[in-house]
Amino acid sequence: YKNGGWAFLQNIHLTPRWTGGYLEKRCDDLETAHVEFRMFLSAEASKLPINILQVCVKLTNEPPEGLGANVRKNWLPFSDDFFESSAKPGELKSITFALCLFHAVVVERKKFGPQGWNRVYPFNMGDLASCAQVAMNYLEANPKVPWEDLRYIFGEIMYGGHVTDLFDRRLVSNYLQAYMLDDLLEGFEIFPGFKTPSNSGNSRDILEYIDSEFPQESPTAFGMHPNAEIGFRLMQADTMFTNIRELQPRGAGGGGGMSVTEKAKLMLDDIMERMPDAFEIMEILDRVEERTPYINVFLQEIERMQELMFFMRKSLAELALGLKGDLQITESMDTLMNCLAGGQRPEIWDKYGFPSKRPLGSWVVDLLQRHKQLADWTGDMGLPKSTWISGLFNPQSFLTSVMQTTARKNDWPLDKTVTQTEVQKKAPEEILAASKEGAYIHGLFMEGARWDDKTASMEESRPKELYAKMPVVLIRAVMWTGLELKDNYVCPVYKTQDRGPGFVFNAGLKTKAAPSKWILGGVGLLMDVA
User: Fold this and answer.
1) Closest by Cα among 414, 390, 422 to 495
2) How many other CB atoms are there within 10 angstroms of residue 296's CB atom?
3) Which of 149, 237, 312, 352 shows the greatest Cβ crowding within 10 Å of its Cβ?
4) pTM of the model as a whole
5) Model confidence over 464-478: pLDDT tens digits?
6) pLDDT, tens digit (0-9, with 9 covering 90-100), for 35-78
7) Do 354 and 407 contact (CB within 8 A), yes or no?
8) Which residues, including other chains, have CB under 8 Å from residue 159's CB and lie 6 or more apart?
């Protein structure tokens, strides 16, 4: 750099230790560099040292937004030379275009949040290029297009290698089932309002076709209901307002407003006043005649509730003393105070609590309802007429108790017993007695579709109805046969809208439409909606 040369360091995000150590220190010496010296750095979006960012003129290459722009970007690397090097250039063009659309869909689908993907995956252009090359090789080696082989390689190896969630793998497979078929070679409507281009033209013709014919983006292009756009915009707005709130000053209130301390004290007193009395565990245990699977579940739930309530009382009491000046405010107490003042659920309670996305006020109401269900159970200690399964800390244990009870009754091996769901045409208050064949549950919401009582099957969501309430569902245990039920959608049930890690069980729901419709639509059942 003393002689005025130029340097280009590529992909410095791959060497974080060297970048944050040697390179950062060398940037301090640039003041003595030759006036003609220039150094260029390239990196993916990552946490780079502040000193380096401050001395640089920064340019960013943002990926395009929108399905059409992504399809166009994906098609650009494929030239006529690539297609003409194949013995079947027409077939290769059609498959490559479908791959470009598929890649754009799986990348853009993440904007719909957990309804789009349960987890975020690092799909990249290398996956697309590799798949196109595989398609060329297989076309050369086979007289006919080996669709099944291609779908397996693309879905289970190339793209599937990134995907770790079972239901996300199912989604990838169904996209490829819809795209990779004989109709693709002749041209067909691959999604509503868009027909695949003819494979007789050159790559420039297909690029112009994308620019002129690709429709305005909507969730239907992904196989999703238009309501998904509302959910996406709500997430955007929520993120924006959360960021704005984080930027607000947290000092004393001005202009007659309440200070953070006053707001926290008001919320603290309200919660302490509403908290119910602790359960008398020994008294409850004395009344238990037989420890059935159901009784074990509810006793475990009461223990969990006791732990949560105890920790809440303890942390709130310590904060109250801190606000009075009797105790020194610690970091955890300060965090709790800010959460109470801002109406946010304190994370320190989540260790003993339950998965939830509710704000503090709604979360406390939900907590009191959960406590009431357990208090009602302690009356006669029998199986409730219908169990609010969303109000349990560990709903999986309740499902296991259904299987245990049935397996003992029929002398079945527990590892061969599975749950089966049957949606009823009744609300919880219409259930007159507990089921003898299993257990009635309620408290589920369907996202991406709705349940129609008249047809007793899944139907399209109503406009602007993001979450449709489900009727009572009968859960019973049956012997596993390995056979797939006809006209049945295996619907995943999750604890919250975050889906992924909150998976509970699979519910079999009747459907008149093909199950793939609901798979592409990201349809799932949720136990709690914020």
Assistant:
1) 390
2) 15
3) 312
4) 0.87
5) 999 999 999 999 999
6) 888 889 988 766 778 778 888 888 887 778 889 999 999 999 99
7) no
8) 106, 123, 127, 131, 172
